Design the sequence.
C-alpha cells in the first residue's frame, strides 16, 4: 500500500515534547519533527558522551529540558513550562539484559516514569480549559505481548510479558490506555518491533554489533542459537509512524488505541546476520553462534493490519536498503571514532 504522508500543516510551528531525547528512536523522531518545522523540547536526564541527536547537531536546534521521569515534580514542571500540545513519551530503560539484572531500575523508569508523565498531562489538561495537550503517544513494545502460542501478535492479544522489561512495557501500555479511558486523556500506544538504523550506539544490539564485527574482520557473535524469529523495523519508518499516530490521536480517531508498528515479515537472527554481512561486503565471515542468552522470548513478530487500515501507515523501506544505509553510517562513524582515539 502507499503510506499516508504526515500532515505538514499539523506540525509547522507546533511545540512538541520528546522524552528521552538522547535515545536512539527519540533522536530520529526529533530529526523528523525538525524536518516538519516543529518546535521541539527534549526532556533529558543524563548527557551521554555521544548520541544520534548530538552527532547530527540536532541538540543545538531544540530546547533541552532537564528532568528525571521518576520524579513527579520534574514531569509536571517540564510539561507545564513549555506549552507543548503533543507529547512523545519515549524515555525508558530499554536494555533487556540490564532489566534482568536490575528490575527495580527498569520498573521505576518504565512504569513510574510513564505514570508520572501521563499524570502531568492529565493535570495540565484539567487545569487548562483549552486542554493544551492534544496527543500523547507512549512507546510500549512488542515485548509486552510476552510468549504466546499464536503468531503474529494482533492488538487484541493479551499482554503476557513475564520478564522484567516485558512486564514493565505491558504496565506502561495499560496505564496509557487507562488514562484515556478514565480521564479522557488523548493518549495512544505504539508497540514497535525491534528497531535498527543509523545512530544506535548500544553495541550490544545485534545490528551494530554485527556491523562492527564485520568492519573489524571478526566473526559476529550470536548470543542465542540463531533460530529466534523477530520483526526488524527501520527506525525512520518507525519515526514516521509516531507522527501519523499523533495526528490521528489529536483528531480523536486513534485515542485510547494501541498499534503494532513493524514490517510483518519476520527474520531469524541468523538470517538477519547474514543480510548484515552481505550489506557490509564481508561475505567471507561466518557468525559465532553461542546459544548463551536467557530471559528472552523465542519468537516475536507482529500483525500490522490495524496500523495499515486505520493510520494508513506501513513500513516502506526494504531491509536490504535500510541495512545498506545503516552499514555506511557505521562505517563512517567507527572510522571517525577510531581516528579520534589515535
Sequence:
Amino acid at each position: 500500500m502507499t503510506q499516508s504522508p504526515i500532515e505538514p500543516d499539523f506540525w509547522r510551528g507546533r511545540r512538541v515534547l520528546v522524552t528521552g531525547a538522547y535515545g536512539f528512536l527519540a533522536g530520529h523522531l526529533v530529526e523528523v519533527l525538525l524536518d516538519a518545522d516543529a518546535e521541539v523540547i527534549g526532556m533529558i536526564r543524563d548527557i551521554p558522551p555521544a548520541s544520534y541527536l548530538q552527532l547530527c547537531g540536532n541538540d543545538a536546534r531544540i530546547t533541552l529540558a532537564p528532568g528525571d521521569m521518576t520524579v513527579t515534580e520534574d514531569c509536571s514542571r517540564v510539561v507545564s513550562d513549555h506549552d507543548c500540545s503533543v507529547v512523545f513519551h519515549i524515555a525508558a530503560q530499554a536494555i533487556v539484559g540490564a532489566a534482568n539484572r536490575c528490575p527495580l531500575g527498569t520498573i521505576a523508569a518504565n512504569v513510574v516514569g510513564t505514570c508520572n508523565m501521563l499524570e502531568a498531562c492529565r493535570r495540565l489538561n484539567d487545569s487548562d480549559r483549552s486542554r493544551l495537550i492534544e496527543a500523547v503517544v507512549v512507546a510500549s513494545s512488542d515485548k509486552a505481548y510476552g510468549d504466546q502460542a499464536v503468531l503474529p501478535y494482533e492488538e487484541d492479544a493479551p499482554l503476557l510479558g513475564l520478564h522484567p522489561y516485558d512486564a514493565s512495557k505491558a504496565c506502561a501500555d495499560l496505564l496509557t490506555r487507562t488514562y484515556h479511558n478514565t480521564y479522557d486523556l488523548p493518549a495512544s500506544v505504539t508497540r514497535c518491533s525491534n528497531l535498527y538504523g543509523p545512530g544506535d550506539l548500544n553495541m550490544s544490539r545485534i545490528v551494530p554489533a554485527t556491523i562492527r564485527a564485520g568492519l573489524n574482520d571478526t566473526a559476529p557473535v550470536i548470543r542465542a542459537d540463531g533460530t529466534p524469529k523477530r520483526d526488524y523495523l527501520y527506525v525512520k519508518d518507525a519515526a514516521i509512524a509516531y507522527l501519523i499516530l499523533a495526528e490521528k490521536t489529536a483528531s480523536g480517531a486513534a485515542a485510547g488505541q494501541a498499534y503494532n508498528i513493524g514490517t510483518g515479515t519476520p527474520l531469524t537472527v541468523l538470517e538477519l546476520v547474514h543480510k548484515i554481512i552481505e550489506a557490509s561486503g564481508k561475505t567471507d565471515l561466518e557468525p559465532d553462534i553461542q546459544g548463551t542468552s536467557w530471559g528472552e522470548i523465542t519468537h516475536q513478530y507482529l500483525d500490522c493490519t490495524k496500523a495499515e487500515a486505520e493510520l494508513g501507515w506501513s513500513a516502506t523501506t526494504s531491509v536490504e536498503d535500510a541495512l545498506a544505509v545503516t552499514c555506511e553510517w557505521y562505517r563512517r562513524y567507527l572510522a571517525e571514532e577510531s581516528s579520534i582515539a589515535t
